[in-house]
Amino acid sequence: MDQDDDIPVPINNDLERTIADAFEVFDHAGNKIIDVREVGTIVRGLGCCPTEAEVQEIVMAVEDQRSPGSVHLSKFLPYVSQLITEHKYEPASPEELLEAFKTLDFEGKGFLTKDYISTLMTQDGEPFNQDELDEMLEIAIDPHTQTVPYEYYINQLMHEPLGEDNIFALARRVESEKPPPLPPPRRMSEYLRLPEGFFIN
Fold it and tell me: What is the pTM of this model?
């Protein structure tokens, strides 16, 4: 048994428990270790929306340098917990998505053509591969008009988890329950300093 298997991984709150539970689904040997290729699946399964490049950044931060290709829970848990607490990779709201689509719809028609959306998704920003594009178009395209009526598409897309099923709502609650930080320790000289305008005869 690798000595890393014995590293204790304390679970301090509900957010960490949720992350650990998601991790354990892919911990097939039960030794608190997963294959590095599962990192993106776990992070996205938690409700985060990182790009592939951002997934690689996470992998670089959590991969076990002594055992390349593997990730231990002791490194994954605090790192991902911090990302979520900082609201990194939080999905766009329906309002933000609608605003983005309206920016692309120069003529205000309320839809985008299949060709136009396909070009955007495969050439701009971080491009979709063909499978990702096909999956998106299957939901987005109106079969009668062969266009993307984006308000309808956003409604189809947006299944926002309620309450603490939303990992970012859970993170907000956990943060709010933390005790306030202690005031910094005072130096002895601050205790001995005389108040302003006070003089000793």
Answer: 0.68
